[in-house]
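> agent: user asked for a holo structure of the chain below bound to nicotinamide-adenine-dinucleotide. Plan: (1) validate sequence alphabet, (2) canonicalize SMILES, (3) run complex prediction with ligand conditioning, (4) return tokens. Step 1... ok. Step 2... ok. Step 3 dispatched.
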Amino acid sequence: MGRVQDKVCVITGGARGLGLAAAEALLAEGARVLITDVDRAEGEAQAQRLGSNARFRVQDVTDEGAWKTTLDAVIEHWGRLDVLVNNAGIGLIGDVEKATLKDWQRTLDINLTGVFLGTQAAIARMKASQSSIVNVASIEGLIGEQEIPAYNATKGGVRIFTRSAAIHCARAGYKIRINNLCPGFAETQMVAGAVASMAPEDGEAFAARTLARIPMGRFAQPAEIANCVLFLASDESSYMTGSDLVVDGGLIA
Ligand SMILES: NC(=O)c1ccc[n+]([C@@H]2O[C@H](COP(=O)([O-])OP(=O)(O)OC[C@H]3O[C@@H](n4cnc5c(N)ncnc54)[C@H](O)[C@@H]3O)[C@@H](O)[C@H]2O)c1
């Protein structure tokens, strides 16, 4: 028996990075996984590679109607929904003086409103069974970073939103647990893209400065973050709800 044997899981932003690593970890422990993403080509290719227990569906997490059709399709295909990993996210560089309203709004829409919509839609379909929602926040919801004010605001928002929703579900008697995962810096295209969007000397300085802040002296491998998604998704975390699981190589310690 795998650690999440036969659980039906949905992972947003699963075409690459941490979402894809989470899909691999859950599948390896017996789950059935729908990865969703706005990137159809990559999502379809990865689902094909992951095998018959993996499926892909195009979904924009900011679209309320798409949440309904996506989760209804999961229940139609697999009969139930046990785990939702709200993982899709973006990070746009620009300090509080440079950030535009458009970038601020886009970040809020995907990183925070997307998590609200997903959590709400999942709760409506999970009430009857023991289930888990994992909201991928960040250590950037615990500390400030001058280059990413909108990202900070959304990740802080996700952390406290999760608590509100978790308390509601527990008090209502639903067997739905909702927790935050707060990764530090992991080697994905999000981090590489942020560095690449800076002037070369700024990017190098940012990378060196960031590494120097991490007591373990290295960025995380996506699989190391995915192991924590697996723990929160599984019944091994059965007494955890409304919590933050920080996985950051000691950075905020
Ligand atoms: N990489 C890190 O160091 C790190 C650290 C802490 C938290 N996180 C969080 O982990 C999550 C995944 O990050 P990652 O590093 O894998 O990023 P990534 O950029 O590599 O992957 C994000 C995925 O989300 C998808 N996506 C973007 N907008 C979407 C939308 N509107 N609807 C659906 N999918 C959408 C992208 O197409 C992409 O496949 C994010 O929420 C991020 O904030 C990442």
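> agent: step 4 complete. Summary for user: The pocket of nicotinamide-adenine-dinucleotide is lined by residues 12-13, 15-19, 37-39, 59-62, 87-91, 110, 136, 138, 183, 185-186, 188-191 (CB under 6 Å). Residues 101-126 form the longest helix (26 residues).
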